[in-house]
Amino acid sequence: TRAVLDHATFSNAVSNRLTVPNGMDPPEHTAWRPIVEKYFTRSRVDAFEPVCRGIAAALIAAAAGPVELMGAIAHPFAVRVQCAFLGWPDELAEPLRRWVARNHEATLARDHGAMTRIAGEFQDLIRDTIAARIAVGATPETDVAVALTQETIHGRRLNEDEITSILRNWTVGEIGTIAASVGILAEYLASDVGLQSRLRADPSLAGPAADEILRLHGPLVTNRRVTTCPVEIGGRRLPAGARVTVNWVAANRDPRVFEDPDVFRLDRDPSDNLLYGAGIHVCPGAQLARMELRVFLEELLARTSAIAPHRPATPAAYPASGFRTLHLLIS
């Protein structure tokens, strides 16, 4: 955990692109973090839960028999929930989904030219969306993107690049990670009939079960850091400017922390789970994500009698996690 907690030595400023606030270090990060955190308070998350539940229920109700879950439920759930949380209408879900898919493919291909072009497309999308939302009467109270235009930092309003960076971070992080998590949860349940029965009998276990399944199969594999000075870690001496990869999947199976690390157990200390990171860069949207995944599990189990594998799944390629395709039989 040293590379995660010692932010003075292991910097998050690794991207050439403005990344608010997760690509910043203190004191810059300290100033930006409260602006972001206010959108993920417990009261906001609680108020949003019925909307999230309605989206999950509708998608699950429409899926029966052989289902390719990533296309039928996981990706639509992630993008519709994100649009609803932002206060955007359903018709923006498809443009957002297409952009996330193009960005993902360019990232996998390491096509930096395409990544730069796609980043510009997202800035255009955000600019046009905010203008259109304001034109139809959206307010800071009803639209998160419009609200960001009213935020201030260092005595000035946020500029377009900063707003785009925040929304890109939320969109890529939320849609990609939630979709991957939904697939991972569904696949795990399909492979364990006993756990399905246990969770149907006691729905209060859905939240802890989601965290434990995602400890075993993390939706986010790695993050990057860069050293600010010479340092020794893991018996290796690194110079200043060295690139370091934080492997969350390995950390969450560390036998020094987790007894029987490869075994699903609901009696673990949740504070040991690094699913949402740790330290000053812990995911600000962790409460929202936990609620969304708990609600998805609750609705999936309440609205089905059986979930089983149908055809072999296609795993996602690194740096992504989860599944590219996931064929299940849902009754």
Gist of the model:
The chain is of the alpha+beta class and 331 residues long.
What are the SSEs and their pairings?
Layout lengths: L1 H4 L4 E2 L16 H10 L4 H20 L3 E4 H18 L6 H17 L2 H24 L8 H5 L3 E2 L2 E2 L2 H31 L2 H9 L4 H11 L5 E6 L3 E3 L2 E3 L4 E5 H4 L34 H17 L4 E9 L7 E8 L1
Antiparallel strand pairs: 1-5, 2-10, 3-4, 5-8, 6-7, 9-10
Helix pairs in contact: 3-4, 3-12, 4-5, 4-8, 5-6, 6-8, 8-12, 10-12
Radius of gyration of CA atoms, rounded to a whole number: 20 Å
CATH homologous superfamily (4th level) name: Cytochrome P450
Beta strands, count = 10
Structure class: alpha+beta
Judging from the principal axes of the Cα atoms, what is the shape?
globular
Tally of helical runs: 12
Number of domains: 1
Residue stretches low in confidence (pLDDT < 50, at least 5 long) are: none
Which CATH class applies here?
A: Mainly Alpha
N-end to C-end Cα span: 42 Å
Helix content: 40-55%
Q: Estimate the strand proportion.
A: 5-15%
Strand order of the largest sheet: 1-5-8
> How confident overall, as mean pLDDT?
95
Q: Strand-and-helix sequence, N→C?
A: HEHHEHHHHEEHHHEEEEHHEE
The CATH architecture classification is: Orthogonal Bundle
Remind me, CATH topology?
Cytochrome p450
Major sheet: 3 strands, antiparallel
